[in-house]
Amino acid sequence: MSRLAKAADITDPLLWRDAQHMLGRHSSPDEQDQCAWCGKAWPCDARRLAERAAAASKRGWRESWTARHDINNLRSLPRWRREFY
Ligand SMILES: [Zn+2]
């Protein structure tokens, strides 16, 4: 993960910011190979989604729209803010 990515590479700064936030939370597995943040099997759903979102934020609008849609779906779940975000 790099915060030094060139701004010019990022086509969706909001999605990029959200992805970095999630990557920072779900950053590593614990000794049981579960996410140290949310306790799910590593890589957890949030980690995979964040990685996808980070990649999508640097590509075309079509993919970034899809990733944002996924994130918004996750956020609509009551557990999202408590566990994922
Ligand atoms: Zn996690």
UniProtKB/TrEMBL annotation:
This is Uncharacterized protein.
